[in-house]
Request: fold
Amino acid sequence: MHNGIIENFLDLKKKLEAEGHIFASQTDSEVIPHLIEVGLSKGNDFEEAFRYMARQLKGSQAIVALSQSPERVLCGIRLGYAGGLLIANHKGETILGSALPAMVPLFEQDMSSSHEVVFLESEEMVTVTRSNTIYQNLDGHMLGKEPVSVAVSDLSSDKGNYSHFMLKEIMEQPDVVGATFKEREDFYNKTISLSDFQISDADVLNLTRVILVGCGTSLHAAQVGRNWIEEFAGIPASAESASEFRYNHLTVDSKTLVITIGQSGETADTIAAMEHALSKGARLITICNSEGSQATRIAESTLNMQAGLEIGVASTKTFLASLCTVLILAMYLGQIRGALNSLQMGVLIENLSTLPRILGDLLGDTGKYKDLAQIISGYDDLLFLGRGTHVPIAYEGALKLKEISYIHAEGYAAGEMKHGPIALIDSNMATLALAPKYQLYDKMLSNILEVKARDGMVAAILTEGDVELGSRVDVAAYIPPVPESLLPMVLTIPLQLVAYYVALAKGCDVDKPRNLAKSVTVE
Reply:
């Protein structure tokens, strides 16, 4: 059983094939049993062969393997911070699972009591036999893992060890983004396959325009996606608010592809926009997280976000799932239209394969965002600044802060500061700048210095190692250096956590903010 992506599987597969191993599929998961086989051939027992396999892999994942020997040894390991793995004891049985909800059916006959569960951390391993359960690290050293007592009510509510659904859903994002492209990307042939995309290649080649439509968080995903559609697919694209779409007199015809984005598939404005698009003869697909919803019934094709149930009203994991899905779609369209050559596609796919691990590592230390949040919580007004594809991420960061902490915040294109908003800057206004090292870094640096020159407090999200800019801002949090195509997803994590910790500091109801509903089903 394998949950995750093996980043170096092509190198491993080539090496194994050179040694005489025969593969029956193109999936990265198949290198796992072959590597265990290699470990066994070295004279190791199953447990050590499993450990040998784990040491060869790069990337974040959870793996469970069962030996068919008479001893029936079961081994499980967690690598990195994506791919959860937990162990429960129940009525003399030891059960391995990826998440607490999987345990509910096992415990439903005993709803009155609590149950003991062990959560594996990165590079921790469990070995289960009929008589024993032991925990070790990758070097084989024994670990003293203490079980956690979990009430059945916690299992049923699916909050796990987290105090809020929002935090739990933020922490699930490495697994979610992996799920969005796990079955859609062929890492071996470096191609995209969308079996649920029902528009023919000939019709894709005939497209003259793409319009992405959404509300709130989904609109921000659409705004990032617009850039990707133009860059990777070479088709003119725009992003429109669903609530305004049918009133804007846009040119929409049979050569227009309308892509709606929505978590619930029931948002009234989005449904109305879809019906309007169909009335104009447009081709229509939806990116949605709810199978069987209105949006999925209206659209020609549905690309499921694969995010799983999201309870927190402020969307987090569905936003990242939306971004990853529209990126995959942009690459797919570019593949069909010849806008991306095989080398470009290979680089994009290889970069995407690293994203779950990068997000998992970033979420491995959430405490570093608390200082930044503590400072921001003292201000009543904030500006979130970004450039390029990061402008919609600034919008999303401001929206999250507004939604759950009730602080007035606005997202802005940093280049627009001097055209009016700079008049607001003084010592009472805080600015959060998205300033990673990428092609518009120098422009962003200039905008930050404009704010500092007017006594504005600047918090910044920077690339690790950026000592110069780090010394010029008031407070900074850092992300690892990543390819530009991944920056919108990576920058989102700090903004979600900052909003969460600010809301905690202000004593707000994180999961159920006032005046908001999870799905807006009225106009």
